[in-house]
């Protein structure tokens, strides 16, 4: 079987989470980053450590993995002594004061757990906390979802969005063999391809390209879709476009795998942000759904998420769930208890649920406000170019369209930190820092082309 | 964004996967997953399910792999409750680094390698936080597959059933080595040593550091030394799964003896640590994987690669359990409380072993039950046959796994006489 090939997503639209998954599924070169073209000479280079000279260690030839590019941004930011530095690489919500936020309702849930002496720390079942699973499915699919009422949904608690994607991918296809010799690289039948998504010219959706690429996908292919607030571009299809995508996919029997990491966090409305998913469920078809509570409940490090598989029948859903257990058990046996307990505590109580929706909307509103403020600031400076994509894009990230020279310039001259693809985290902005950022963008755009 | 499409299946696929012809299914009404078979139930977890479904007031669950107090209740340690009180309302929930909590890792290494270990000072240990013992073993298995693709793993017979699943899913070929001696209900030491000698040089071995699961049979200190010596001769790689440090003898230092012997002998080891039992953190999935390397630079490289394996699995490990562990181990008062509590758990188990054996002897059982007190840790390999186990369940409402493994954690002063009586009844010669 030919080794799999990746046609890298056009550089600025590289999806970090997906590329992580892709790197897992494919022969990976440790030096490939999101910004470079696909490296088909996928080998793990080895260079000697001191130990490898006459070494008896089995790990002597092992090379160090490259630094995570986003982590590198924060590392550089931390080292910078400048008082005006701004970190726009951060993928976590920050308050107006630039601080991490634990939601009040989460603190309440924490206290309830602490104060309940009968709470124990026993193993969860392999599929996780049952109540959490039910409530999560209701949250994304809607309480009145026919798929839920017909018992056609198999839901398992997983480790946030990444864990849900991984379990889903492993279920669809087992982990491929891999090693650090090219000749050993085989992929048992899985090919990964890209479809066009981001249009750098418009800084919007390349809808025509998307439809063309999906049309030419082989029947039975699995298509990864961001439910809302596409990461890293912030560019989402409109509802009409989603409908066209849905029709095309169903007609070609393409299986949707949704990644929902920002429900409620994008528009401020849980239902609105779930529309794309619910549209696909409403037609009675099947899909996979990876759900994360990292951002919308601020539970980042607790690793709370769920994988749901909407199946053709209740009977199939039961069997699918049993198979998912076979994937999970040899990975980590059963999922972590704490975060799921917090989520279940909040979702099951209507008063706490309401409190959560208000805090969630406040986070989304602050982000939307930052977008507006940045756009207004650039307009008032007369910064050349069309910056409307800042307010058209949605979610935590904006793909500014700045090139890597401009990004480097902004880092050196203005102490602004972002990833070299020009992606900024709106969560890292505040009313106080918007002027500084817009000065930096203005300078970069006018002085460098 | 990407599409994933499926081509021809390979022989390595599990039966759960759809055969290629199913990709032709077109109608929306038919399911792409219609061919999925129901998976077999997990043999261990199925026991508890059956127990819960039993209405008998006399039922006893000695299948459970979790500690119970003398009232048969699960326990949250006081040191854990205190640590959680300090966390709630105070600490945030930001992402941990990919490799996990540095503090938790540091304390874990001290426990396993020794408080004053030179390897820690020299920064020679590559270590990452892992999802309890399972997660640590899986990371190592995946690491083995990726960087030592020609290697296999030798797994003891018997072992915790999930070990087989872990290395299978990592696609590392497995072999078994002799371990348990059914006739003596002890260690088949000569069989073990033969397997070690006959394995190809440089083989990888999975060793239970203490309190072997499911047999409770551990090598003596002298036997460990001989094993270590033979490993040196054969240049074998020892991977220790240590799920019961402190929980076995009551003394964490003593329970790490096998590891320390291998370290003294100059082996480079791998080690999976779990806080599920010894800190009662089961569902929090708190553990650590460590690999002793030749030097600091190699340790940095190995750690970076372990992180690369963890990242597409779950990005970064869960923070809560790690906070509990590091708060307890970093605070001298809390740590000393923990040591007391873990000794308390171990002592209760040891007490129940004595009581069960004495009860059987009092009942006049002609069989030898020395193995009950010779074995160590949570489990006792009783030597009962599956048929005898079935009788225990059906006639006496006693639940355990069909390999005759008794979880001593489920034994209490309240049920030990009942249990002894039932065992005596199904095992007495006719």
Q: Helices and strands in order, then pairings?
A:
The complex is a heterodimer of chains A (449) and B (430).
Chain A: H1 16-25, H2 69-79, E1 86-87, H3 104-115, H4 130-141, H5 146-149, E2 153-158, H6 160-172, E3 190-194, E4 198-199, E5 204-205, H7 207-215, E6 222-226, H8 239-251, E7 255-260, H9 270-273, H10 275-282, E8 287-292, E9 305-310, H11 314-332, H12 337-348, H13 350-381, H14 389-392, E10 397-399, H15 404-414, E11 416-417, E12 423-425, H16 434-447
Helix pairs in contact in A: 3-12, 4-12, 6-11, 7-8, 8-10, 12-13, 13-16, 15-16
Chain B: E1 2-6, H1 45-53, E2 60-61, H2 78-87, H3 102-113, H4 118-121, E3 125-131, H5 132-147, E4 153-157, H6 161-169, E5 174-178, E6 180-181, E7 186-187, H7 189-198, E8 204-208, H8 221-234, E9 237-242, H9 252-255, H10 257-264, E10 270-274, E11 286-292, H11 296-314, H12 319-330, H13 332-362, H14 370-374, E12 379-381, H15 386-396, E13 398-399, E14 405-407, H16 416-427
Parallel strand pairs in B: 2-13, 4-5, 4-8, 8-9, 9-10
Antiparallel strand pairs in B: 3-11, 6-7, 10-11, 12-14
